[in-house]
């Protein structure tokens, strides 16, 4: 790693976000982690050099405070997701991820960075690329996902969050983005994985993606300029290598 990186991370207490945090620190990256409760962070990161923990609710943090935390970061990573419980899936905030994306993008722009900040979003294969680019899905899959977005708030939220980034496009002077789309998540560490511009499996014959692989790819995006150049402005699908063709 040639330059010293500073990353603002949200969702660092989650299963994927915790792995992102551990891997960033292992790479010597400075991390500012906004979390609701520091107690839920992975046990082995406490007191690690390079880690700053900000205990706050991201959605109610003042604009001025969020701007202060975003200023000076060269990447922002969101691994937020709705807690898997009845309250987490059906209760407020229905647009947790989208509201967080909106707030973070606003803070990045307000900080007027000299070099565009990299925004890396944990998204999902349930999310479509704009312009009907994900042609792999058949009519039944598309109808099912349309129904899911109507009925299940998190599915709608993930699409809305990705649409905010797709709406920003690739010409913003202050931020560039990548929305990472894992398939079915497994609580496993880093293995070989592959990246694809579009969908490679159907909803009813899904592939799998280790959380460790999502974390590894997000860290590569944050710290490796060549990887960033390959994927900026895109929604790469990430799946385990062993999953290909299963
Ligand atoms: N399950 C799958 O197969 C799959 C596949 C593809 C994509 N995804 C997407 O990936 C996301 C992340 O997955 P994961 O399993 O790593 O998530 P996770 O372990 O459930 O972690 C969720 C994170 O979001 C935070 N969070 C939840 N509600 C919040 C709120 N109201 N305000 C602030 N923070 C809040 C949690 O913080 P606290 O610790 O404070 O609760 C936690 O850090 C999923 O939610 C989904 O959108 C999932």
Shape: globular
Named CATH topology: Rossmann fold
Query: How many domains would you count in the coordinates?
Result: 1
Name given to the CATH homologous superfamily: NAD(P)-binding Rossmann-like Domain
Gyration radius (Cα, Å) is 17 Å
Keywords:
binds NADP nicotinamide-adenine-dinucleotide phosphate, 10 strands, 20% strand, single chain, two-stranded parallel sheet, 246 residues, eight-stranded mixed sheet
Description:
By secondary structure, the protein is α/β, with parallel strands linked by helices. It has one domain: Rossmann fold (3-Layer(aba) Sandwich). The protein is built from eight helices and ten strands. Helix 1 links the parallel strand 1 and strand 2. The longest helix is centred in the middle third of the chain and has 16 residues. It is globular and about 50 Å long. The model has no long low-confidence stretch (mean pLDDT 93). NADP nicotinamide-adenine-dinucleotide phosphate (NAP) binds next to helix 1, helix 6 and strand 7. NADP nicotinamide-adenine-dinucleotide phosphate binds next to helix 1, helix 6 and strand 7.
């Amino acid at each position: 790693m040639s330059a010293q990186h500073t990353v603002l991370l949200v969702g660092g207490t989650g299963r994927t976000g915790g792995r992102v945090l551990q891997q960033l620190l292992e790479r010597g990256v400075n991390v500012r982690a906004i979390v609701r409760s520091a107690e839920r962070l992975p046990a082995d990161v406490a007191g690690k050099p390079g880690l700053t923990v900000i205990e706050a609710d991201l959605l109610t943090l003042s604009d001025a405070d969020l701007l202060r935390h975003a200023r000076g970061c060269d990447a922002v990573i969101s691994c937020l997701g709705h807690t898997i419980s009845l309250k987490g899936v059906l209760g407020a905030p229905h647009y947790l991820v989208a509201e967080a994306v909106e707030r973070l993008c606003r803070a990045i722009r307000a900080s007027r960075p000299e070099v565009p900040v990299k925004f890396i979003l944990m998204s999902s294969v349930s999310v479509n690329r704009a312009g009907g680019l994900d042609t792999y899905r058949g009519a039944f899959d598309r109808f099912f996902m349309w129904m899911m977005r109507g009925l299940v708030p998190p599915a709608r939220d993930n699409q809305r969050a990705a649409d905010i980034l797709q709406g920003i496009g690739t010409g913003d002077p202050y931020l560039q983005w990548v929305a990472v789309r894992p398939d079915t998540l497994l609580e496993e560490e880093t293995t070989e994985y592959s990246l694809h511009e579009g969908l490679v499996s159907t909803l009813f014959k899904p592939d799998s993606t280790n959380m460790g692989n999502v974390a590894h790819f997000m860290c590569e995006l944050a710290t490796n300029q060549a990887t960033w150049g390959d994927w900026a402005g895109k929604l790469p699908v990430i799946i385990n290598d062993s999953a290909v063709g299963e």
